[in-house]
Amino acid sequence: MFNLKNEAKRFLSYHVGCNSRLMLWHDPWINHQPLVSLLSNDIVSLSDSFNLAPICSIISNRAWKPSSSNHVLVMELRRLLQGVRIFSRDEVLWNGNAKASIPVIWDSCRRIGIRPPWFDAVWHSWHIPKCSFIFWLMLQNRLLTRDKLLNFGLNVDPSCVLCRSQPESNVHIGSECLFTSMVLKSCPVPVSFSWNEWQAGFFTRGRTSRVKSQFAWLYVGVVLYLIWRERNNRIHHNGGSCHVDSLIVSVKRMVREKASTLASLKKEISRDPTLVTFLY
Ligand SMILES: [Zn+2]
Q1: Ligand 1 centre distance from Cα of residue 124 (Å)
Q2: Measured in angstroms, how far is the CA atom of residue 168 from the centroid of ligand 1?
Q3: Which of 220, 234, 256, 277 is 20 to 30 A from residue 187's alpha carbon, by CA?
Q4: What is the DSSP string of the chain?
């Protein structure tokens, strides 16, 4: 955050009030720089002022009253002040907006990338953050699966602990593993098992309404979260293997719990009562 200080400066601007307590020489209220930087430190003594003077010390009756010296620096100060309006009170603005918020500030500073085709499937309005986080990592091949550990030079069994038949990787766990596909088949909306289709943003099969697509995205996100948790339990906690049927029960319970908090889904169910069957 500290390193962003200089980056942030260009978005800050100041409204100077007639009784302004902003620092005349050291706050960057003109051209994003302190006057001592724009005009040198000499401007303080040349203006018969003092180091920590407030801006109101050169305002009288809502008008600028700087020193009348004919020194070139003071003349430059008078020229700079001609373009500065005096407001009723001090305000620091972000990007011209007095109501700055963290999202506004973040969007101003960050480099905005191109959204991948699967963005909506992961970060839709019904998403469960912890599920979408795992979903997001998996689609970018970032979950620390055994193929990666082998690449790091670690001596680990390469096989998937869920199906015990194929090497473990993000692609395998997400869309190739027999265990995952058996759980995913329980989704009331038919979903694709093709990694390439997922990467292209297609998670459902055939024509699907937006509501049903969103339900499928929620369902797939929950499945992948619980599959990853089951995988970790088997490896790290010597947990007893959870059967596919038990996992499906957990998926449906989690989806129902989320659905019970979604006013928009309740509205959709009132329009199409058959959606209720999706939850059981
Ligand atoms: Zn597997």
Answers
A1: 27
A2: 6
A3: 234
A4: -GGGHHHHHTTEEEEEETT--SBTTTS--BTTB-HHHHH-THHHHHTT--TT-BGGGGEETTEE-------HHHHHHHHHHHT--EESS-EEEETTBSS--HHHHHHHHSPP-PPPTTHHHHS-TT--HHHHHHHHHHHTT-S--HHHHHHTT-----B-TTTSSSB--HHIIIII-HHHHHHHTT-SS-B---HHHHHTT--BSS---HHHHHHHHHHHHHHHHHHHHHHHHHHHS-PPPPPHHHHHHHHHHHHHHHHTT-HHHHHHHHH-GGGGGGG-
